[in-house]
Amino acid sequence: MSITIKQFSLGKLLAVLKGAVILPFKTNAVGRLGRISGRLTIKNRGEFVVGKNVSFHSKPFQSSITVSKQATLWVGDHVFFNYGLDIGCTKSIRIGSNTIIGPMVNMIDTNFHPVDVNDRSESNDIVISENVWIGRGVLILPGVTIGRNSVIAAGSVVTRDIPSNVMAGGTPAKVIRAIEVPNEWIRRYN
Protein backbone atom coordinates (compact mmCIF):
# COMPACT_ATOMS: atom_id res chain seq x y z
CA MET A 1 0.00 0.00 0.00
CA SER A 2 1.33 3.44 -0.84
CA ILE A 3 0.47 6.87 0.49
CA THR A 4 -0.04 9.92 -1.70
CA ILE A 5 1.79 12.95 -0.37
CA LYS A 6 0.49 16.47 -1.03
CA GLN A 7 2.47 18.59 1.39
CA PHE A 8 5.09 17.78 3.98
CA SER A 9 7.33 19.90 6.23
CA LEU A 10 10.81 18.41 6.48
CA GLY A 11 11.80 20.99 9.09
CA LYS A 12 9.04 19.86 11.46
CA LEU A 13 9.96 16.21 10.96
CA LEU A 14 13.64 16.85 11.64
CA ALA A 15 12.73 18.72 14.82
CA VAL A 16 10.90 15.62 16.10
CA LEU A 17 13.16 12.78 14.95
CA LYS A 18 16.83 12.09 15.59
CA GLY A 19 18.99 9.72 13.53
CA ALA A 20 17.21 8.16 10.57
CA VAL A 21 14.42 10.19 9.01
CA ILE A 22 11.29 8.43 7.88
CA LEU A 23 10.18 9.08 4.30
CA PRO A 24 7.70 10.32 2.69
CA PHE A 25 8.65 13.92 2.01
CA LYS A 26 8.69 15.27 -1.56
CA THR A 27 7.47 12.02 -3.13
CA ASN A 28 4.23 11.36 -4.98
CA ALA A 29 3.79 7.91 -3.44
CA VAL A 30 5.80 5.91 -0.93
CA GLY A 31 5.61 2.46 0.61
CA ARG A 32 6.08 1.60 4.28
CA LEU A 33 9.40 1.64 6.13
CA GLY A 34 11.23 4.11 3.89
CA ARG A 35 14.05 5.96 5.63
CA ILE A 36 16.81 8.51 5.23
CA SER A 37 20.00 8.79 7.23
CA GLY A 38 21.98 11.97 6.62
CA ARG A 39 21.22 14.77 4.18
CA LEU A 40 19.20 14.12 1.01
CA THR A 41 18.15 16.98 -1.27
CA ILE A 42 15.09 16.25 -3.41
CA LYS A 43 13.76 18.56 -6.13
CA ASN A 44 10.62 16.92 -7.46
CA ARG A 45 8.59 18.62 -10.19
CA GLY A 46 7.52 15.38 -11.86
CA GLU A 47 6.57 12.02 -10.40
CA PHE A 48 8.74 10.34 -7.75
CA VAL A 49 7.43 6.95 -6.58
CA VAL A 50 9.21 4.99 -3.85
CA GLY A 51 8.44 1.37 -2.89
CA LYS A 52 8.48 -0.14 0.58
CA ASN A 53 11.60 -0.56 2.72
CA VAL A 54 13.78 1.86 0.71
CA SER A 55 16.87 3.32 2.44
CA PHE A 56 18.85 6.43 1.60
CA HIS A 57 22.13 6.45 3.56
CA SER A 58 23.50 9.95 2.95
CA LYS A 59 26.37 10.04 5.43
CA PRO A 60 29.11 11.30 5.29
CA PHE A 61 28.28 12.87 1.90
CA GLN A 62 24.97 14.43 0.90
CA SER A 63 22.84 12.84 -1.82
CA SER A 64 20.78 14.68 -4.44
CA ILE A 65 17.75 13.71 -6.52
CA THR A 66 16.19 15.94 -9.18
CA VAL A 67 13.02 14.94 -11.04
CA SER A 68 12.08 17.38 -13.80
CA LYS A 69 8.57 18.37 -14.88
CA GLN A 70 6.83 15.49 -16.70
CA ALA A 71 9.60 13.04 -15.68
CA THR A 72 9.17 9.84 -13.64
CA LEU A 73 11.59 8.34 -11.13
CA TRP A 74 10.35 4.95 -9.96
CA VAL A 75 12.07 2.98 -7.18
CA GLY A 76 10.99 -0.59 -6.34
CA ASP A 77 10.86 -2.31 -2.94
CA HIS A 78 13.88 -3.09 -0.71
CA VAL A 79 16.31 -0.74 -2.49
CA PHE A 80 19.40 0.66 -0.75
CA PHE A 81 21.08 3.93 -1.83
CA ASN A 82 24.49 4.75 -0.37
CA TYR A 83 25.99 8.22 0.20
CA GLY A 84 26.92 10.73 -2.51
CA LEU A 85 24.10 9.62 -4.80
CA ASP A 86 23.26 12.01 -7.66
CA ILE A 87 20.20 11.32 -9.84
CA GLY A 88 19.10 13.68 -12.63
CA CYS A 89 15.80 12.49 -14.10
CA THR A 90 14.35 14.47 -17.02
CA LYS A 91 12.30 11.66 -18.64
CA SER A 92 12.31 8.27 -16.92
CA ILE A 93 14.52 6.30 -14.54
CA ARG A 94 13.28 2.97 -13.18
CA ILE A 95 15.15 1.12 -10.41
CA GLY A 96 14.01 -2.45 -9.72
CA SER A 97 13.37 -4.06 -6.37
CA ASN A 98 16.21 -5.52 -4.26
CA THR A 99 18.81 -3.29 -5.92
CA ILE A 100 21.89 -2.00 -4.10
CA ILE A 101 23.33 1.35 -5.20
CA GLY A 102 26.87 1.95 -3.92
CA PRO A 103 28.40 5.25 -2.81
CA MET A 104 29.06 8.17 -5.18
CA VAL A 105 26.85 6.78 -8.00
CA ASN A 106 25.53 9.17 -10.67
CA MET A 107 22.55 8.48 -12.97
CA ILE A 108 21.47 10.94 -15.67
CA ASP A 109 18.93 10.27 -18.41
CA THR A 110 20.00 13.27 -20.52
CA ASN A 111 23.21 15.10 -21.44
CA PHE A 112 21.54 18.37 -20.33
CA HIS A 113 23.48 20.44 -22.92
CA PRO A 114 24.19 19.86 -26.63
CA VAL A 115 27.79 19.11 -27.59
CA ASP A 116 27.55 21.25 -30.75
CA VAL A 117 25.00 22.89 -33.06
CA ASN A 118 24.17 19.55 -34.75
CA ASP A 119 23.65 17.64 -31.50
CA ARG A 120 20.00 16.54 -31.21
CA SER A 121 20.47 14.79 -27.86
CA GLU A 122 17.25 13.91 -26.13
CA SER A 123 16.44 12.29 -22.83
CA ASN A 124 16.50 8.49 -22.92
CA ASP A 125 15.07 6.10 -20.32
CA ILE A 126 17.31 4.34 -17.81
CA VAL A 127 16.13 0.94 -16.57
CA ILE A 128 17.90 -0.87 -13.74
CA SER A 129 16.29 -4.30 -13.34
CA GLU A 130 15.71 -6.23 -10.11
CA ASN A 131 18.46 -7.53 -7.81
CA VAL A 132 21.22 -5.43 -9.38
CA TRP A 133 24.33 -4.22 -7.55
CA ILE A 134 25.84 -0.92 -8.72
CA GLY A 135 29.37 -0.44 -7.31
CA ARG A 136 31.06 2.67 -5.96
CA GLY A 137 31.50 5.65 -8.28
CA VAL A 138 29.54 4.24 -11.24
CA LEU A 139 28.17 6.64 -13.85
CA ILE A 140 25.02 5.48 -15.68
CA LEU A 141 24.30 7.42 -18.86
CA PRO A 142 21.08 7.97 -20.88
CA GLY A 143 19.35 5.10 -22.66
CA VAL A 144 20.91 2.27 -20.63
CA THR A 145 19.19 -0.92 -19.43
CA ILE A 146 20.94 -3.08 -16.85
CA GLY A 147 19.62 -6.66 -16.72
CA ARG A 148 18.35 -8.58 -13.71
CA ASN A 149 20.91 -9.81 -11.14
CA SER A 150 23.86 -8.07 -12.79
CA VAL A 151 26.77 -6.39 -10.99
CA ILE A 152 28.45 -3.20 -12.23
CA ALA A 153 32.04 -2.90 -10.97
CA ALA A 154 33.20 0.18 -9.07
CA GLY A 155 34.26 3.17 -11.19
CA SER A 156 32.53 1.99 -14.36
CA VAL A 157 30.86 4.21 -16.94
CA VAL A 158 27.77 2.48 -18.32
CA THR A 159 27.14 3.75 -21.86
CA ARG A 160 25.24 0.77 -23.32
CA ASP A 161 22.90 -2.02 -22.22
CA ILE A 162 24.20 -4.71 -19.87
CA PRO A 163 22.51 -8.15 -20.04
CA SER A 164 21.15 -10.11 -17.06
CA ASN A 165 23.33 -12.29 -14.81
CA VAL A 166 26.71 -10.78 -15.65
CA MET A 167 29.47 -8.79 -14.01
CA ALA A 168 30.36 -5.74 -16.09
CA GLY A 169 32.96 -3.06 -15.63
CA GLY A 170 35.29 -0.56 -17.21
CA THR A 171 35.07 2.65 -19.19
CA PRO A 172 32.92 2.07 -21.12
CA ALA A 173 31.47 -0.85 -19.16
CA LYS A 174 31.50 -4.22 -20.89
CA VAL A 175 30.70 -7.76 -19.78
CA ILE A 176 33.55 -9.30 -17.78
CA ARG A 177 31.95 -12.66 -17.02
CA ALA A 178 28.67 -14.46 -16.41
CA ILE A 179 27.58 -14.88 -12.78
CA GLU A 180 25.46 -17.63 -11.28
CA VAL A 181 22.29 -16.32 -9.65
CA PRO A 182 19.43 -18.75 -8.89
CA ASN A 183 15.94 -17.37 -9.62
CA GLU A 184 14.91 -17.15 -5.95
CA TRP A 185 18.21 -15.68 -4.65
CA ILE A 186 18.16 -12.04 -3.56
CA ARG A 187 21.33 -10.03 -2.94
CA ARG A 188 21.25 -8.47 0.55
CA TYR A 189 23.07 -5.47 1.93
CA ASN A 190 24.43 -5.21 5.45
| Bulk shape | globular
Kindly report how far apart the N and C termini lie. 26 Å
- Count of β-strands: 20
What low-confidence regions span 5 or more consecutive residues with pLDDT below 50?
1-24
The helix content is under 10%
**Number of separate helices:** 1
Radius of gyration: 16 Å
How much of the sequence lies in strands comes to 35-45%
The overall pLDDT average reads 84
Query: Given the helix and strand composition, which structural class is it?
Result: mainly beta
By oligomeric state, this entry counts as: single chain
The biggest sheet, with number of strands, parallel, antiparallel or mixed sense and barrel status, is: 13 strands, mixed
| Helix and strand pattern | EHEEEEEEEEEEEEEEEEEEE
Secondary-structure map:
Blueprint: E1 3-4, H1 10-16, E2 21-22, E3 29-30, E4 35-44, E5 47-50, E6 55-67, E7 72-75, E8 80-81, E9 86-89, E10 92-95, E11 100-101, E12 106-108, E13 126-128, E14 133-134, E15 139-140, E16 145-146, E17 151-152, E18 157-158, E19 166-169, E20 174-178
Parallel strand pairs: 3-5, 4-6, 5-7, 6-8, 6-9, 7-10, 8-11, 9-12, 10-13, 11-14, 12-15, 13-16, 14-17, 15-18, 17-19
Antiparallel strand pairs: 1-3, 2-4, 19-20
